[in-house]
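Batch manifest, entry 17 of 40.
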Amino acid sequence: MKITLLFFVIVLLFGSLIRQSGYSGMPWQNKAQHIPGKIECEFYDLGGEGVAYHDDNGVNNGSGKLNPANGSYLIEFRMHKGVDISYTKPHDIDNNPYSAVPPKMEQFYVGWTKPGEWIKYTVQVDRTAIYKICLMYTANGDGIIGLDLDGKEIAKDLKITSTHNDADTVKWRQWHHWNKADSLASVKLIKGVHVLTLRVIGNGNMNFDYLEFR
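Output type: structure tokens
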């Protein structure tokens, strides 16, 4: 029984390497994120710059910089990695009246995005089906993203509609107007372990809470 269980774990963790030749990343906390369901953007793969992600610099502009280290899990989460991470805050910051879809508080998100950056996620597709892609996000200006699966493009030039609102006179808060795109695209996914890549193509200036596959 133990041998069978160990074999299953090995297949789960390394199946993506077979599908995407040369990929040496590993899932966050050795747990693939499941589809259907939410892919939490902060739980990107282990492997570092050039393997699990590409960021334009090695500094986490959120954890440890915008939010100075103080021993808090929310503030110091993955603070020494290049992917920029922050979390939703109350006091009229992320719970401001200009969000079309109010976010949950104290939820991590990936931000400070720029064109050319990308992040990888090991995912377990639980059943073969056509999935609708959703995204919880903010965008200070229209943006464009793309999605790859096992190194092959599955969703190209997905427009992310701006959440900028001139009625909000607090300039920095333009990056905190949340919305949810409920139908960016539909894609057919095959049951099994895969590597999903989220690519920033146009504009940047977006924050990503989670992708959802329905």
